[in-house]
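Hey, can you fold this one?
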Amino acid sequence: MSTRLQGKIAFITGAGSGIGAATARRLAEEGATVVLCGRNLKPLEAVASAIREAGGQAESSVADVSDEQAFVGAIEAAAKRHGRLDILVNNAMAYTWGAIDTTTSHDWHANFSTTVDGTFWGTRTAMALMKAAGRGAIVNIASICGLFGTPGMAGYSAAKAAVINFSRAAASECASYGVRCNVVVPGVIDTPATAGMLADARARANTEKLIPLRRVGLPHEVANAIVFLVSDEASYITGACLPVDGGRSSELYTVLE
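Sure. Predicted structure:
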């Protein structure tokens, strides 16, 4: 087990599966004590138990990120239990599908309550705790959809775009206090959220043709980028927007073979 994050206290949202779970495992492997946050205890405990069995330190914290009081309370309680908060990873998100002309106002707002509001509440709470300590690292998870328009996902794309620019503003506000805030922008990653699409062999093949590396990403590959950004190796990096997308955002168009 590495010690890059030895003694650090990390809080990860949406940690019961996918990128959040992979991030919790990687941070723990690097020596951090991880607090896994999500709405349901069972998947959180499954990940936390596996981390503990591997020799890491992990605990579960049940809270709905779209509930301001519950979410803020969970972060503050974790910081109180451990005496501080060193790392926050805002990974939880929610989305709806549908063409713009058939999207209801309710469905539109559903894209923002967890993804944007939750990121704001989490960042605001962590900033206050970290500023008082004079140190800390926040990583907010956006999406390639926040960089480019995606048919049928206007609400999700708008929400993830908001996360990117909000994080830049946060970085500029908290830098003088020794607190860093960066964004990771995943492309198509093999997670429960994409499982339906990727289960279809033809859809997966067509998706991979659009990615320069010719494959979808894995959760631990996103987690590796997060580990770097919260570590001292990234001590002079803040306000950055790091794509982890196999090169998808680097191309104007793709020539299919």
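The chain has a mean pLDDT of 92. Let me know if you want another pass with a different chain boundary.
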